[in-house]
Write a structure and sequence with these properties.
The chain has helices at residues 3-36, 59-70, 93-100, 119-124, 143-153, 215-221, 226-236, 262-268, 271-283, 297-300, and strands at residues 48-53, 78-84, 105-109, 129-132, 158-160, 163-165, 193-195, 201-203, 241-243. By secondary structure, it is an alpha/beta fold.
Length: 302
């Protein structure tokens, strides 16, 4: 590992830890008061819900991620933390205190692994805009702002701070995940844009197929790949993902949160490819699915 990479791996997460803790300590009272004020998105058509899930192996660093979401300069109307019933007793005091301060809401749900971060929110808030976040990442203060700004321009589209471009091999078949163009988007062929959860993804109401809630099917086809399932549900609904522009985000994981990271199974062990092939066999090629024309909010009123 180069000295530059070693520096980033060790110093920047520590810097982010200090930044989150200091900022939260200094502004806790303002953050609590802000929750009591007029909802920050009362002028929009939908409530903005930040939705996240976690499990005991990640609880040690979870409060840091939650605080970085709470500290967003454009805040969500609600921050929902979904926890499996059996995991509730293991939540540490620093997370329970955030709920006591009315800064987050903790809800219990069925253990559907990473799907807990979106499926319960979609079920309970069908008319809300759901923004999903990973539980092991530091989020810069304008992460949510970037998503909302682009969503205001394209209200029907899925918006992501980070996307990959799906590539095809010489036979025209979807290539191995390892060969996709990472952290990149395609404006001319947006159907190849694959949203990744690490940077935060904004899902407007009804932006996904009605089949998104089919629990038995997503656990069968993509049990460890919620991003894969959600991409197909977006394409089945004729929708596409757009990547935010002019962001220089680098999303850093908390260093003590990666012992059980899904990417070790999905990327290093080709788990993504297995799940992608299962989705292809069941639903067909998403790159060949039509894209519904964009309809602006003004068009809807005509």
């Amino acid at each position: 590992m180069s000295l530059k990479k070693e520096f980033k791996k060790t110093f920047i997460p520590l810097k982010n830890w200090l930044k989150v803790q200091a900022s939260f300590f200094l502004h806790t009272k303002d953050l609590i008061n802000r929750k009591a004020d007029k909802p920050p998105h009362a002028d929009l058509n939908t409530m903005i819900i930040a939705s996240i899930t976690s499990y005991p192996a990640r609880f040690r660093s979870l409060h840091l991620t939650l605080k970085s979401i709470i500290l967003q300069n454009t805040p969500a109307d609600k921050i929902l933390l979904w926890i499996a019933h059996n995991d509730r007793p293991y939540l540490p005091k620093n997370i329970l205190k955030l709920e006591e301060q009315n800064l987050i809401e903790i809800h219990l749900t069925e253990d559907t692994r990473s799907y807990k971060k979106i499926i319960p929110s979609l079920s309970n808030y069908p008319n809300a805009t759901i923004v999903t976040f990973d539980d092991d990442v530091f989020y810069p203060k304008d992460t949510l702002k970037k998503l909302i700004e682009l969503s205001q321009l394209y209200p029907n589209r899925v918006i992501a701070n980070r996307t990959h471009q799906i590539t095809c091999n010489q036979h025209g078949l979807i290539d191995s995940y390892q060969h996709w163009i990472k952290n990149s988007s395609n404006q001319k062929q947006p159907q190849v844009n694959f949203q990744t959860g690490i940077g935060g993804v904004l899902y407007p109401p009804r932006s996904l197929s009605n089949g998104v809630m089919e629990h038995e099917l997503f656990m069968q086809l993509a049990p460890h790949g919620d991003d894969i399932w959600l991409y197909w549900m977006m394409r089945l609904n004729g929708n596409i993902a757009l990547q935010t522009v002019n962001n220089n985000f680098e999303f850093y994981h908390w260093p003590f949160s990666q012992k059980t990271a899904l990417y070790k199974q999905n990327v290093r062990q080709d788990g993504n490819d297995v799940q992608i092939q299962a989705m292809l066999a069941h639903f067909g090629n998403p790159l060949e699915m039509p894209v519904k024309p964009y309809i602006s909010e003004e068009d809807k009123t005509v």
